[in-house]
């Protein structure tokens, strides 16, 4: 009996390790991988399909530029935005009419394509909107005719190339602009510019209209002056004006004296013979 017990204990001790090995082979340990391996095996996300829009988006139209046309024939200044007419203002022009070419002291409103060079408020005539006269055509003509020198021509072209107002002190004249009539005249919506030809070459509006225009324009606004109006016979300044009427082309604030003298002598309604 004692021998049998010892035999079973010996058999159990031999079989127990084998049972442990059998259990481990039936449940192997899980395989461990690197982080990169797990990242590479992440399934891609599901992206829902988005249908294309049925209507294309059109680009916004470019803003239409404001521009001014001064018709010296009917004495009207028209403000356009693109093809749309915004405003119309009656104007007065130069004492000697309007023509494509002018020189200092001839009292002619220049005909051509210009831009607003600057806007100054608080002048003797309210807002003063300088035009970029002389332009390239004016300068070429002046150089060809020997009115200005090569140096003066180069200065005009250089200023225009920089987008600046050209020199105003050459023999071609300067300080041609758009302005009102001054504090001596009415300043309300019903006021009108004194009609006719009485400026030293500028384009004059009523005080009210000049202020309205000054709120619309900016530096660079295009201004086209069109039409050709005959003036008094050419000659010396004294010969082509009524007695007592003096030139003010060299004084950008001299239009008022010019107008008052013209009113005194009745020259604003005088006959308008053609240029010789």
TrEMBL record:
SUPFAM superfamilies: L,D-transpeptidase catalytic domain-like (SSF141523). Residues 1-29 form the signal peptide. Keywords: Cell shape, Cell wall biogenesis/degradation, Peptidoglycan synthesis, Signal, Transferase. Gene3D superfamilies: L,D-transpeptidase catalytic domain-like (2.40.440.10). The active site is at residues 179, 202. The keyword Cell inner membrane does not apply. One of its GO terms (molecular function) is transferase activity. Residues 66-226 form the L,D-TPase catalytic domain. It comes from the Bacteria. InterPro entries: LD-transpeptidase, LD_TPept_cat_dom, Transpep_catalytic_dom. GO terms for cellular component: extracellular region. GO terms for biological process: cell wall organization; peptidoglycan-protein cross-linking; regulation of cell shape. The keyword Cell wall biogenesis/degradation applies. Pathway: Cell wall biogenesis; peptidoglycan biosynthesis. Belongs to the YkuD family. This is L,D-TPase catalytic domain-containing protein. It comes from Acidithiobacillus caldus.
């Amino acid at each position: 009996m004692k021998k049998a017990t010892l035999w079973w204990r010996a058999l159990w001790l031999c079989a127990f390790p084998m049972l442990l090995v059998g259990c481990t082979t039936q449940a192997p340990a899980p395989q461990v991988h690197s982080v990169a391996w797990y990242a590479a095996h992440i399934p891609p996300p599901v992206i829902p399909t988005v249908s294309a829009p049925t209507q294309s988006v059109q680009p916004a139209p470019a803003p239409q530029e404001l521009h001014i046309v001064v018709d010296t024939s009917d004495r009207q200044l028209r403000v356009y935005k693109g093809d749309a007419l915004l405003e119309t203002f009656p104007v007065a022009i130069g004492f000697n009419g309007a023509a494509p070419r002018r020189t200092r002291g001839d009292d002619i409103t220049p005909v051509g394509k210009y831009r607003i060079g600057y806007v100054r408020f608080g002048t003797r005539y309210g807002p003063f909107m300088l035009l970029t006269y002389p332009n390239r055509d004016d300068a070429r003509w002046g150089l060809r005719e020997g009115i200005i020198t090569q140096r003066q021509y180069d200065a005009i072209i250089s200023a225009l190339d920089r987008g600046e107002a050209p020199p105003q002190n050459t023999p071609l004249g300067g300080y041609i602009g758009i302005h009102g009539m001054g504090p001596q005249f009415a300043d309300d919506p019903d006021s009108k510019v004194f009609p006719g030809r009485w400026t030293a070459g500028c384009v004059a509006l009523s005080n009210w209209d000049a202020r309205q225009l000054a709120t619309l324009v900016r530096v660079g606004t295009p201004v086209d002056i069109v039409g050709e109006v005959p003036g008094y016979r050419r000659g010396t300044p004294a010969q082509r004006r009524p007695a007592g009427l003096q030139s003010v082309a060299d004084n950008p604030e001299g239009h008022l004296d010019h107008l008052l003298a013209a009113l005194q002598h009745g020259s604003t309604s005088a006959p308008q013979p053609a240029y010789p």
